[in-house]
Amino acid sequence: MDYLAIQILNGVQLGLLMFLLAAGLTLTFGIMDLVNLAHGSLYMMGAYFAWTLIGWTDSFVLGALLTLPAALALGAVVEAVVIRRLYARDHLDQVLATFGLILFFNELVRVIWGPAGKSIALPAFLSGTVEILPGLPYPAYRFAIIVVGGVVALLLAWMVQRTRTGMLIRAGASNRRMIGALGVDINLLFTLVFGLGAVFAALAGLMAAPILSVKIGMGDDILILAFVIIVIGGIGSIKGAFIAAMVVGQIDIFGRAFLPDLLKTFLSNAAASTAAPAISQVLIYLVMAGVLVWRPTGLFGPRT
């Protein structure tokens, strides 16, 4: 039971990281109708910004806090220089242009930080464990990810549902031409949405960096799962992205934790360890296919 509880927490932690990445992507896709393949590059840039700023300030918390405005500024610049020219283009042009951004950011990182991977050391107060339940220790940093991710999810839900900015974001997701006709500055709204998406992606990158390695292209693979999450949850739906991220996180963690022992009953140890992660990924895509058959617009997508 202790092992099961730990794996559930690991699934929640992975789901919250994926939600941060998918939230910005679903806002960008749902409001701006923009297919942004470079969203994973913003995740990578957040990790590199964090590595640099933590080194400069010699403080993990201060460096992480400074990463967020840096990501917001980067997102605003990218939107103004590149993305704004793609709104009137079709999705194929958007895919090609944002794929070019992936190549640009990868080479930029190679020039500035070099090709070698980086690592971020945890501060002493997050390097130990916390006792979730009596006799059940859990890594303090992973628990901190759960807390921060949960707080950000609540703040984002409050902003979207209870503030004027959130009202404009929801209106833009429903009918952006109408809010433009009502006098709302569409360019400013789109810059804000893209900047927020960059901040959420960078936050996910800086929180994942101490667990993983900071390297070129680190956001490319996780971007695929982010697209799967927004398809399952419904494009433009924050609630849908959160629920879908929780489901995907549990499927991935449980598949990797329990499938190897199940497969070892009729496969070799090496074959079972190799097959389990692949099967867990297939299960995620099967869930996506099932949701699309039942509701083509996703769990919380608009009814059309």
Under CATH, the topology is which? ABC transporter involved in vitamin B12 uptake, BtuC
Net shape = globular
Residue ranges: pLDDT <50 for 5 or more in a row? Answer: none
Helix content: over 70%
H and E string: HHHHEEHHHHHH
Sheet with most strands: strand arrangement: 1-2
- Report the sheet with the most strands, covering strand number, pairing sense and barrel closure: 2 strands, antiparallel
Distance between the termini: 44 Å
Number of strands: 2
Helix- and strand-based class? mainly alpha
**Count of domains:** 1
Q: Kindly report the oligomeric state of this protein.
A: single chain
Known CATH architecture: Orthogonal Bundle
What's the gyration radius in Å?
20 Å
The CATH first-level class comes to: Mainly Alpha
Number of helices: 10
Strand content: under 5%
The mean pLDDT is 87
Explain what the structure shows:
The chain contains 10 helices and 2 strands; from the N terminus they run ααααββαααααα. The longest helix is centred in the first third of the chain and has 31 residues. The protein starts with a helix and ends in a 10-residue tail after the last helix. The chain has one domain: ABC transporter involved in vitamin B12 uptake, BtuC, CATH 1.10.3470. The mean pLDDT is 87. The protein has 304 residues and is mainly alpha-helical. A hairpin with a 2-residue loop joins β1 and β2. The radius of gyration is 20 Å and the shape is globular. 75% of the residues lie in helices and 3% in strands. The chain has a two-stranded antiparallel ribbon with strand order 1-2.
